[in-house]
Amino acid sequence: MQDPAISQRARDIAAKVEAFVREVVVPYEKDPRRDHHGAPLDELVVEMREKARAAGVLTPHILDDGSHLTQRETAVVLIRSGLSPLGPLACNTNAPDEGNMYLLNHVGSTDLKARFLAPMVAGTARSAFFMTEPADWGGAGSDPSMMKTTCVRDGNHWVVNGRKAFITGYHGAKIGIVMAKADEGACMFLVDLPDPAITIDTIPNTIDNSMPGGHATLTLTDLRIPADQMLGEAGEGFKYAQVRLSPARLSHCMRWLGACIRAHEIATDYACRRQAFGKALIDHEGVGFMLAENRIDLQQAELMIDWCASVLDSGSLGTVESSMAKVAVSEALMRIADRCVQVMGGTGVTDDTIVEQVFREIRAFRIYDGPTEVHKWSLAKTIKREWKDTQG
């Protein structure tokens, strides 16, 4: 029985996205247009997006009138876009762009939407979100209150100085959302990229490589930003970050669930075809049980995503719920990816399939948008606060 909360329109969009990813995007997984670290080059992204545009599946979660699908409807679409590591890039549902589009749609002025949001929705501009700072600088990581990057008003401009780290997709991005600290509190600004006041210190090699532009460490030196490019009000930056981060965490869960569904399909096909000790691998309990456990974890992850999405659709910020979903889903997907590698043995650790990449990407996902341990710590604080409230 179909869930009435998911419109037929959303189901149709999801079906088109899945067909596009499986039929058009999957063949690109062997395309050699990659950087030294294996990340897709923008040339490859542009080509895939042109095909997505022609197929009517570019930025599919944002409708022609600018409205968004509900979070529950977005889930059925983004899960399908994640069936290939390249799918979110092709369909323009990838991080950090998807989260940045969500934030701008909710907080940006009409002028800022026209200038910065429109090219992102059109898939012609990638973006970056400048929040995390280098550990060796003592800056903000999981604790945003440690932010050291500053912004000072100078006439009709703000001047920003500081450093940022793990800025996903910076190299090649055209739009940036910069967080900095003023006397009023945290602020957010929109900037055109590149800017000579922003220099790349390094782009480290990381365990994951699905994101074009890598995860850069940057220095911002006297970056001058027109005052009308501030997002919202001065001092409200942390509030706006929560507007972005809760659905963005959930969107990560959606996309990587799609990747693990595909990895499970590949491992299942391998186990059903591969023979050992006189029978198919899947008929050995040690292998068959791993695939059974995968099926259970996949179903539980989907249910957790749907539950958290329904909370966000109710109008709640969903910070507690998104923390729970981030922990539960990322840990479940890690188990799934690990089992897929194990089921496939030696083949599972090669790049003959996407299984080994999915394993690496999910391992990084357990850290990105807040490590599991930080979310558990935050949840424990909530539990303690709730207990205190019951004590009168």
From TrEMBL:
Which coenzyme or cofactor does it need? FAD
Q: Species lineage, top-down? A: Bacteria, Pseudomonadati, Pseudomonadota, Alphaproteobacteria, Sphingomonadales
PANTHER family, A to Z: ACYL-COA DEHYDROGENASE FAMILY MEMBER 11, MEDIUM-CHAIN SPECIFIC ACYL-COA DEHYDROGENASE, MITOCHONDRIAL-RELATED
Protein name per the record: Putative acyl-CoA dehydrogenase
- What residue stretches are annotated with the Acyl-CoA dehydrogenase/oxidase C-terminal domain? 235-382
Q: Which SUPFAM superfamilies match?
A: Acyl-CoA dehydrogenase C-terminal domain-like, Acyl-CoA dehydrogenase NM domain-like
The organism's superkingdom is given as Bacteria
Do the record's keywords include Flavoprotein? yes
Family, according to the entry, reads as follows: Belongs to the acyl-CoA dehydrogenase family.
Residue limits of the Acyl-CoA oxidase/dehydrogenase middle domain? 128-205
Organism, by scientific name, is Caenibius tardaugens NBRC 16725
